[in-house]
Amino acid sequence: MSEPAEPSPTWPSFARQVIELAVRNLDVNRSTPPEQSVESLGGVFVTLKKLGRLRGCMGTLDPSQPLAEAVRHAARTAALGDPRFPPVALTELPDVSVEVSILSHPWPMQSIDDLQIGTHGIIVRKGLQHGLFLPQVASEHHLDKHTFLSRCCAEKAGLTPDAWKEADTEVLLFTAEIFNE
Description:
- It contains four helices and eight strands; from the N terminus they run H-E-E-H-E-E-E-E-H-H-E-E.
- By secondary structure, the chain is of the alpha+beta class.
- The protein folds into two domains: 11-104, Hypothetical protein ph0010, domain 1 (Glycoprotein, Type 4 Pilin); 107-175, Hypothetical protein ph0010, domain 2 (Dna Ligase, domain 1), CATH 3.30.1490.
- The strands form two sheets. The chain has a four-stranded antiparallel beta sheet, covered by helices on one side. A four-stranded antiparallel beta sheet has the order 4-7-5-6.
- Helix 1 (11-23) crosses helix 2.
C-alpha cells in the first residue's frame, strides 16, 4: 500500500512558507511553489492581515517575472519591507493570514461606468505618480466608485482626490484571482 501523496501547495501556503523562511533569515528559494499556472499574468500582490487588520501588502505589476518568483518576492517584501509597518516577527506568524492576488493585464477605463465594485481593481497614473487598489479594497471598506477612485488618487498616488477626472490622468482597470488561506 502506498502512502498518500502530499497535497500540492497553494499560493497562500507557498507565500506563508516564503514568509516563515524570510522571517527566520533563511533562504526563501527553499520554498516549493504550486504547480498551478495562469494564462495571463499582469502582476501579483501578497496581502498580510493580523487578526483581520492590514499588516502588509506588496507586489509587482511586472508581467515578465515568472509567477512563482513574483509571489516569492511579494511575500518576502510584504512581511519585511512594507514601509508602513515594522517587519513581521516570528511570534506574530500564527496571527497573520496570507492572501495572494494574481492580477490580469490592466486596460484603460473609458468611463466610470466601466468600473465594477468588487470585480475591478484600479491603477491611477499621472506623470511619475501612481497608485493601486486591489478589487477587494472597495468591498472590504464599503466604498462606492467615486470614493474608491478618489481614495486611490489621494492615499496611494499622492494626487488630489479628483485627479482621476483629469484628462492627463490615466485610470486602468484589472481583475484579480484571489487566493486566501
